[in-house]
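Students often ask why inverse folding is considered easier than folding. One informal answer: many sequences map to the same fold, so there is more than one right answer. In these notes we will look at a single instance of the problem. The structure comes first.
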């Protein structure tokens, strides 16, 4: 079951929004209020991190984070 959560991607750095989290179709994220930088993401999704070569949960984060979404 997908557990979607809304966050402001300008203030929180979650793996689901990192360009190194391998999700080429962006299936774990969706815009909610994009003009306010608020997006939804599947907190339980897991993908490989291209920097650490480890499977990471979408709700995780690290110091190598680089946002793949354009922030307004």
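Output (designed amino acids):
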């Amino acid at each position: 079951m997908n557990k979607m959560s809304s966050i402001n991607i300008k203030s929180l750095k979650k793996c689901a929004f990192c360009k190194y989290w391998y999700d080429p179709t962006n299936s774990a994220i969706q815009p909610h209020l994009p003009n306010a930088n608020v997006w939804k993401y599947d907190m339980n999704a897991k993908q490989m991190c291209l920097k650490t070569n480890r499977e990471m949960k979408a709700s995780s984060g690290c110091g190598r984070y680089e946002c793949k979404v354009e922030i307004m």
